[in-house]
Specification:
Number of domains: 2
Helix content: under 10%
Length: 373
């Protein structure tokens, strides 16, 4: 790939993520996952509070309630560990964790707090998680968000239904001294735990789990922007291909910071009435938003990426779609090019742009630095 990278002036710009040598004493992360639990459970209302609620109702008043997290009540515990299946390699264990929080529930009569009608209810979630947890490491768990609400229309007898959402992360850590080339990373996806649990030998010293952590970054990163008038190709199932003219707003940012999760692709096309194919009376205006990206392939200054998204025509219902995007960062600005093909069960849209015919098109493709295997 070329070394002379021209700056991109559009709304999206690539953020570099260079690798540099570092010598540090640091807490090494051997594994890192993020978990989310949501549950609705019936909480028993104390008898003295229930009596005041019924007294308010008998007078024709309206009962309401709120709930909130009790500050300082978050905690988590390591309950147990057991060996994971051998297919996940040495140092891997199934860890049982318990996460606790307390919520305060307050009842109101005609929007006024009922004196003495506030009580505390404990909430606990228990999770089994597959982790790289070698001997010599320790677990650091954290609850970083709790959201609660009371569902009054679900009151049954002397109970009230409470909805609790809890977000937490688990890191496996050990203090080490490293000379490294470093870059930012993030948590991995949760790995399902198999039913069978054969014996797994534990090593004497901590070992990394390279099969799934840290995750690989992209081979290259790219960005493309265009806003202006353009001609596209639009084919409906069983119909002829038309070439409407319209205002196109296309933004593509793939593997920003060499991270596939930091990708987005949005397209808005508004057909200009009377332009394009004269015999076509339909409006080909649409919106497309990508929601899943496959790892891109890179060759010289060209990036190719595929994925899925949602295609929404102005005169129709949203449809699931697949897409293929090819971006070429030319040796000169007028050599930039971009081609996007969006395919649904009923429609194929092709957008082909080049900097010569589509003034304002900007494309940038850069190689990502990767660690040697």
């Amino acid at each position: 790939m070329k070394k002379d990278i021209k700056p991109i002036q559009g709304r999206q710009q690539l953020s570099p993520n260079p690798i540099g040598p570092e010598c540090i004493r640091v807490t090494k992360v051997y594994d890192w996952v993020v978990l989310t639990n949501r549950d609705r459970s019936n909480v028993m209302i104390p008898n003295d509070i229930l009596a005041q609620i019924e007294a308010c109702r008998e007078k024709g008043n309206v009962i309401s309630a709120t709930c909130s997290e009790v500050k300082g009540s978050r905690s988590c515990d390591l309950i147990s560990t057991r060996e994971a299946p051998q297919e996940f390699g040495p140092s891997t264990q199934i860890v049982t964790m318990a996460f606790h929080v307390q919520i305060a529930i307050q009842f109101y009569c005609n929007k006024k707090p009922i004196s003495g009608c506030r009580f505390i209810a404990p909430v606990t979630f228990v999770d089994d998680v597959l982790l790289c947890f070698p001997e010599g490491t320790e677990i650091n768990c954290n609850i970083f968000d709790v959201q609660t609400s009371v569902i009054l229309n679900q009151m049954i007898g002397n109970t009230v239904m409470v909805d609790v959402l809890m977000c937490k992360d688990i890191q496996v850590e050990a203090e080490v001294k490293l000379e490294v080339e470093a870059k930012f990373c993030g948590p991995r996806e949760i790995i399902p735990i198999p039913a069978d649990e054969p014996v797994c030998t534990r090593p004497a010293f901590p070992l990394q789990c390279p099969a799934f952590f840290p995750p690989l970054n992209c081979l290259c990163q790219g960005a493309g922007n265009f806003e202006g008038e353009a001609i596209i190709s639009y084919t409906e199932l069983g119909g002829e291909t038309v070439t409407p003219t319209g205002n196109l707003d296309l933004t593509a940012l793939i593997c920003d910071s060499c991270n596939l999760a930091a990708s987005n692709l949005t397209v808005r096309f508004i057909e200009v009435p009377g332009a394009g194919t004269p015999e076509d009376e339909l409006d080909q205006s649409f919106r497309f938003v990508a929601n899943d990206f496959n790892q891109p392939t890179c060759e010289d200054d060209t990036m190719t990426v595929t994925g899925t998204g949602v295609f929404t025509p102005d005169e129709g219902a949203p449809e699931n779609a697949v897409f293929s995007l090819v971006m070429t960062d030319g040796a000169t600005p007028d050599a930039d090019a971009l081609t996007l093909v969006i395919t649904t069960a009923s429609t194929t849209v092709t957008i082909s742009l080049n900097a010569t015919d589509n003034e304002g098109l900007e494309v940038e493709v850069e190689e990502c630095q990767r660690f040697e295997p």
